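Example with several molecule types.
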Amino acid sequence: MTPFFVDWILIPVAKVLIVFGIVAAAVAVLTWIERRFLGFFQSRLGPNRVGPIGILQPLADGVKLLLKEDLIPFKASKFLFVAAPVFSIVPAFAGAAIIAFSTPWETEKKTIPLVVADVNIGILFLLAISSLGVYGIILGGLSSGSKFPLFGSLRSASQMLSYEVPLTLSILSVILLAGSFKLSEIVTAQQNMHVYFIFPCIIGFVVYLISAIAETNRLPFDLPEAESELTAGFHTEYSGMRFAFFFLAEYANIILVSMIASALFLGGYDIPFLNDSLIGESHPNLLAILGLFSYAIKCAIFIYFYIWIRTTFPRYRYDHLLKIGWIILLPLSLLNLFIIAGIKLLAS
Amino acid sequence: MVNRMKKNPFRMIFFSELIKGLLITLRWFFKGKITEIYPDTKPVLPYRSKGRLHVDIETCISCKLCENACPEYCIKVIPPPKEIFKTDKRPAEFYISLEHCIHCGLCVDPCPTGSIHHSMEFELADYSDKNFIYDKETLPYNLIVKQYGKGGK
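Resulting C-alpha cells for the full complex:
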C-alpha cells in the first residue's frame, strides 16, 4: 500500500462508489417517497403493501421493469435510441461528484475532503453537465421515430434553453457573493459571513427554485412529457429498463438540484449557531457527521418542497411557460444580480 | 396572467395565490386519509347491507314462497316426505345458487317465519363454481350470522 496507491486510486474509487451508492439509494427511496407523499396530499395512502409501510416498493418496481420486454420500435434509429437513456442518466449522477457533503474527515495521517472532486470550477462543471442531460431527452425524442416523442423533445429543447439562463444568473449572484466556484468554499463563505445566501439573494433563490423545476421537467413545467397532449412525451416509446433510466435520471436530477440549492442558499453542511468551539474536542469528526445530517435535512426540505409543488399546481400552457422564463424570471434574475453586485461593491 | 398583474400587482409579486394553494394541499397532507386498507381492516357495512342469503333451517316451514318469489330461480326448496311433513315441516333440502342470486331481497319479504334473510357476509369470491351452490349442510347458519351479523333489515 504505497501512498500513491492510497491517495490516487483507493480513496477516489471508494469515494465514487460511496457517492454513487448514496445517490442511487436515495433515488430508489425517492421514487417511493414521492408516490407515498403524493398520496398523502391527495388524502390517499400511496403504495403501502410491499414490505413495512411499502418501503420495498422500489425493489418490486425494479424487478418488474427488469423483466419487461425490451422494445425498440421499427422506425427508431437504433444506436441513438439505445444511447439516449445513458445520455440522460450519466450527467444526473455525474453532477454529484462536485457536491461537498461535509467538512473534511480527519484521520491520524491525513484529512480527506468528503467530496469526490473538489474542483475549482465546480459550479461551472455542474451547469455544463446538466446541459448535457438535455441531449438525452432530445435524442430520445428524435430517435424514437414517432410524433409524440418528437414534439416532447422539441419542447424540452426550448424549455431547457430558456430556463438555463435565469438558473445560471441566479447561481451567478451566489458566486459573486462567495467569490468562488467551489461548493466547499461557497459554504465556507456563508459560515464566515454568518449569513446564509438565501437572505441577500432571496429573489435569486425564488428564481432558482422555479427554473430548477423546469430544468428537471417536473410539474407544473413538465411540458416535455405532458400526458394530456403527448402521451408520455419523449419517453413514449421506451419500456423496461430503458424507461427506468429516464425515470431514475429525473429523480437523480431532483436530488442534485436540491443538493445544489441547499449548498448555495442554505449553507450546505453548516449547522446554525454551531461551530468547533462549541463542540470542543469530544470527537474529532463529530462536526463532519453532524454536518452530513444537517445537509441531508436541508436536501430533504427541498425535495419535500418539490413534491409539494408537484401536487399543488396544474401544468402551464407552453407559451406561458416560455413567457415566464423570458419575461419574468430573466429580468428578475438580472435585478437580483445587480442588487448583489451593489451589496458587494458597498461591502468592499 | 398579465391582466391580473394590472389588477393587483401585490398578488403577482408575492405569489399570494400560489401560497394559498400550497397551504391548502399542505393541510390535506396532515389530514386523516380516507383510504381503507381493506384486507387488514374490514369495512363497517351499512345497516341494511344485502350480503349472502342465509336460511335458518330450524324455523323454515318449506312453504316455497321464497322459491316462487325469486326472479332468478336460484332457490330450490325440497320439502320432506308427507308423513314427516305433518309433524316436522323443516325442508329435506334447501339449495341457494349464489351464481345466479342478484341479492334483490324479494325472497326475504314473503317469508312467513323470517327464516331466510341476508347476512353481512360480502366476501363471496371462490375458486370453484361448485362452491357457489349452498345446501343444508354447507349453510352453517348460526356460525356465519354470529360472525357477520344479520343484514338487509
